[in-house]
Structures are given as C-alpha cells and as structure tokens.
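Known limitations

Files may contain more than one protein. Parsers should not assume a single record per file. Below, a two-record file is shown to illustrate correct handling: read the sequence, read the token line, then continue until end of file.
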Amino acid sequence: MLHDLHTARERIRQGETSAADELEAALSAAKSEACKGSFLKLHEASARAAAASAANRERPLAGLAVSVKDLFDIAGDTTAAGSAVLADAPPAVTDSPAVARLRAAGAAIIGRTNMTEFAFSGVGVNPHHGTPWNPADPATHRVPGGSSSGAAVSVATGAAYIGLGSDTGGSIRTPAALCGIVGFKNTARLVPLDGALPLSTTLDTVCAMTRSVRDAILAHEILAARTVTRSNAPLSAYRFAVAREQMLDGLDPTVARAFERAVRAFRDAGAHVEEIPLAQIHGLGAIQSLGGFTAAESFAWHRKLLAEKGAGYDPRVRARIERGAAMKAHEYIELFAARREWIRSVQQSLQGFDAVLSPTVPIVAPPFADVAPGEARDAEFFRINALLLRNTSVVNMLDGCAISLPCHVPGELPVGLMIWHGALRDDTILNIASQAESALLAH
C-alpha cells in the first residue's frame, strides 16, 4: 500500500529517506507502464532541483512530487487543456496562483497530467493523447474517470502525492472514487481560478486528489491559503442525512454493498444517520435542460476557436460545447435565479444535518472498450458520462463542498463515499472525513 505525504515527510525528518530519493521513486512510477498515458510532460530537472532545495528548508511539501493537470498555467509551458487545437499556443509567462502556492510550499512539480479535452467529461477518455489505464484493475483497461484523469492515476500509482485538478461537475471526486483515492472539492470561491483554462466560470473549482484525508487537508490549506479549524469530535457527535432521491438509484451491486457497509460503519460509531427524500435533486434536470452553465459559459470562451479550429476538437466535447450557442441571454440570466432558489430550498431541507452521505458515483469504473472514441459508442459514452457525474454535480450546483473517500474492501473495484454539504462547510466536512477514514478502515 502506498504511503501518504505525511508519512513521507516524517520519514525524511527521521533520516530514513530523502526528498531526492522520494522524487526518484515518483519519477520511476511516472515512467512505468501503470502510469502510461497519464503525463503529457515531465519536469524532471526542475523537480529534482526543488527536491534538492527542500533539504535546506522546512516547508510543508518537503520537496515531494506534485502533478499538475494540463488545465493550469506553468511558467514556460503551453496550457493546452488536453487538446490538439491549443498545442501551438504561446507558453504561459507565470504560474497560475494554484501552482505558485504549491511551489512556494515546497512542491516538486513533476509534470503536466492528461485530462479530458477542455475538462468536459467525467469519463476521462482523450482521443488525442490516449486514455490512462485505471490502476485498480491491471487485467482490464478501465477508465480512470475524468476530467482529471491523469492526476488521479499519478496519485494512485505513486507518481505524485498531490494531484492538482479541477472540479466543475465532479472532475476531482469521480476519478478519485474510480481509482480508490481521496478527492476533496472545496467551496469554489476559496481558491483562485486565475491561470486555469475555464470550463464554467460559475461552477469551476480548483482542488486536488491525495492518498489520505490529512493530505487533503494540507493540500487545501496550501491552495486556499487558509488554516482549517480542526476538531477531534467523534462521528457520534454528528448528524447525517442519506439522500434517497436519485443518489441511490440504479447502484451497481459493488457500489450498493460498499455504501451499505459505509453507512453501517457510521452507525456503529454512534453517528445519527437519517434517510431523507431531498426531492429537489430531481428538479436539476429541468433547470439545466438547455445545457446549463457549462454549455453557455464554455461556448462563450470557445466560440472563436471553434470557428477557426473546430475540426480539431474531440467531437463529443465539441457537441456539448455547441449546445451553449442556442441559449438566449434571458435564459442564462434566469438560470442564475433558478439556481439561487434551488440552493435555498436544498439548504432548508438540510437544516440540522452536519453532512450528507452518498455514493460518489453509482457505478464502478467501466471498461474503456465500452466508451472508446467512435460514433458507434457515443450513446454508451454519454450514458456512462451522465452516471459518473450524476451525484457529484449536485454539489457543484449547490455551490457546496464534498470529499470522496474509498469505501471498498480488498478484492473489490474502488468505490467512493461522498460526504457533502453546502457552501463554506469545508472544515466540518474535512473533520468528519478524518473520523470517517478511520471508521471505514476499522470496519
């Protein structure tokens, strides 16, 4: 089992290893067959320099490997967002704030990771650069989830301790769930979006994947430039809701078993867990029937590029972006009003609950062959994409925060437990997750 960043940092302090040795192990993992297709570019020289300089300073990330999704500006690199049409774009002049904060904390930026083109899918398929192999199943090429596909695989294979990514409808939590790692989506406003190519300016969130909750807390504190208020309150001190409507529909048998075990672990720990309808979730379909914020806002950004280089786009991504062309100004404005009312209604239903428990995604990672590029598989691709983002996207529309924790047992494909609530509940969610991580392991 891979150790987390905190363990690596302690081993460095104890003289059992060094940042340089840890980095060489990470680079070896990044070049391994298990990580094939996960990195678009490795930054070996600068990462080694960062690891070497960490020996003389005590910084939170201690010169350890961090991967960066191809969505973020890194000074001197072209930010192509997994596309072919931006491959010849000029390189970034400066680091994005997220990258700069990680670097200042001592990160060894190991490289740029593969992703769904322009971050517009939860599956992780990329026809230009290939689709990384989900490391959870060496025998079958299963999708890693997206859009932060390469970031997830980099963390799950040992190539990075933190995978910087983004989450617009689930692009951190979905791949974390499918690859068996931790993914935390903070309240969107807490981390700057500057220097990240936008998908939806309303829903985009800058966040990360890690191997443990304590690493997730550290990554969030660095990215958000804030300190999480810690609490050691046990699970028995909290009140949880389980949303029945939609969130539990059509669960894969492996997911259903894992989620049932997770809820039982919470109850065995003394937590109060109550099923509620939360029927408002069904209303999201009508609110977003014209494509929602993502279609409208992505089309506004891509309109000129589509006119010039539309033939070079992934056809599945292009089709979703072009839905935004039909949205009228009054419909876009009305969408904001509908969202505000929907958030108010959901918050009212969740009064008295500290968090909600749901499966992160209702299915385990599907085989790549089912969704590989090609018109013959488009219908299945869009069906699976909708399933992979069905539960997670609720939190984005809520402007909320959520974490996905592994809740499967050995021998099962990975399953994620999502713990979530509304805006600015980040510290509560992280503190609950710390207790839940231990309870799930013990159970």
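...continuing to the second record:
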Amino acid sequence: MNILFLHGLESKLSPEKRVILEKYGNVIAPELDYKSNPNMIQHLYDAYQTQDINAIIGSSMGGFAGYHLANSLSICALLFNPALPYRNTIEQIVPVSIPINQSLYMRIVLGGQDTVIKAKDNMDFFAQNVAAKTDYAITIKSDLGHQIPVDVFEEETKAFFKALCY
C-alpha cells in the first residue's frame, strides 16, 4: 500500500508519525511549499495521477489539498483540521481542469479548540459540499487544537485503516 502524506503549511511529517504510517504501508511525504506555489493541487495531481496511491492523509493546508486530490483521484482520505473553509493569507487554486470522481471514504478529524481552522467552519463547508458517493466519518474532538498530538494521530490512523479493512 502507498500512502501519500500531505503536511500543513510550514510543516513536515514528524519521525514519530512516519513510524505510525509505516505500519500500514509505504509512505510518500513530499516537501511542499504552498506559499510559493498557488497551483499545488494541480502539481500534486500531475505528480501522482499515474502512481499507485491507495490513501491520502493530510493536515491543515495538506488537508485542503488532500481533499481535492482524493476527490479527483477517487482515493480514500484521512484529513486533520483541513483548511477547507478559508485560506485568507495563502492562495491555493482549485483547478477546474482536473476530474472530480469523488472519494469513496473520508475520515475528517476536527479540533474543538482549534483557533486556526474552526471546527464549525469546516462543518459548514461539509454541509454545503457533501459528495453523493462519499461516505464521511467526521469527528470533533472537544479538547483538540490545531496541532495533532502523536497519540491522536495514531488512534485516528488506526481507525481510518480499520474502516478500509487494511
């Protein structure tokens, strides 16, 4: 299994989280510069559309890109506090040229204490953008902020892959 991990803005995959993901397969974790590339979704689509990617995991801005990429490539996704409802300071263009096939399953983890990307705003986004073919599992963790602690990452990753029967 190949897992594409998309980190957040000015972030990267920590060694501890990489070890967790490696329990489930080969981890592909490109370093992404969202600030200098407003066409990151198109870039990711071009880079991975012909590769055998089985799951996408993204956090924050990586969750935003992961959401659109998963829907385009019809790949299941685990998204932590995705920056879907707003990206005030960082321009990211959702290309109209890539296909929209819809992911079959998305697990969304939102932080009830997240002051960067408010859970309510993400819930509003999903209420307005429900995909007909996608099964959603949306969890709001009341004590979770924007950063995802290793134990929460591990718990949610395990639940995600269990739901996929891997």
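Parsers that stop after the first record will miss the second one. For reference, the second record is described as follows. Residues 150-163 form the longest helix (14 residues).
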